[in-house]
Amino acid sequence: MLFKKPLIALASVTAAFLPSVMGAAWPLTGDVGCHDPSIIQEGSRWYVFCTGDGIQVLTSNDGLAWTRAPQIFLSAPSWWSKSVPNHSGLDVWAPDVQLYNNKVYLYYAISTFGSQVSAIGLATASSIGAGSWKDEGVILTSSGSNDYNAIDPNLIIDASGNPYLAFGSFWSGIKITALDKSTMKPTGQIYSIAARPNNGGAIEGPSIIYHSGYYYLFASIDKCCDGVDSTYKIAYARSKSITGPYEDVAGDAALQGGVTVLDSGNARWKGPGGQDVYNNVIARHAYDADNNGAPTLLISDLNWSNGWPTY
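^ arabinan endo-1,5-alpha-L-arabinosidase, sequence as received from the core. Prediction below:
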C-alpha cells in the first residue's frame, strides 16, 4: 500500500474470532497476524501470504487453526535495491499467489513509504508445499515519469484462460495489463480501470475474479495502515470485460470513483482491507481494537445477491 507505515507487531491470537463485519467470519485460531493477505488452498492445506519480512506465510490444515511457516525470502535479491534504491532489508508488500498451468506464481511489491519508486517482482514454485521458490526478477516498475504506482499486484486468469496483472495504488488508480503466457510478464497496453479523482486518489489493492459473466473488481479505499485510526474499506465494481469499463451498483463509472462499499468495519475490526477473493472466499486484514490495533487475518464466505457480492 502506498501510504504504508511500519506495521504494528503481528499478533498471535489464540481465542476464536467474534463474528466479523457484515457476516460471520470463520472461527480462526492460532497465529493470525497478517497484513494484505493472499489466500490459496493446495490439496487439503490452506496458505495465506502476507506483507512482511521476506513475505510472511501462514498455513492451516483446515482453514481455521493457523501457524506461521518459513518466510519466502531469506535474503534480498540484488534487483530489489537497484529498482528501488531507498529500499532496505526484507520488507515486502502485498503478495499475491495463484496457481496457473500447474505452476505457482507469487507476485509481490517492493517500495518505500509514500513513494512512487516501486517495483513488482515474481517468484515461482512447482508447488507451495515443495517450496524451492525461484526468483524470476522484476516484472514492472514505476517512477515519477509514470501516472501509476507499481505495487499491489493481482494475477487474474480471464474466462478464456489468458493471464492478466492488475495493480496500482493512489495516483491515477488501478491498472490492468495482459501477461505473456510464457514469461508471465506484462505485454501490450496498460488499461486504467478504477480511480478516485475526487478522494485524493485513495484506491488500491485490486483483487479481480470472474463470476457469472462479469469481472468483479474488489479494492481498498481510503486510509490504510494507521491501526484503529484507519478508515480503510473494501469496495467493488464490475464489468463485462476484464479491461473495463467497471461500474458500481448505481451504474457509476469506477474511473470516476464509482465503487460500492462491501465492508467498512465495526467497533472491533477497524479499517478492513488488503482483500483477496478466492473460490467464493474473501480474506482481508482488519485492525483489532481489542488487541492494540494489531493487523489480523479475517476470512469469510463470499456470497452473491442479485449479481453483487455480499458476506
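The helical segments are 78-83.
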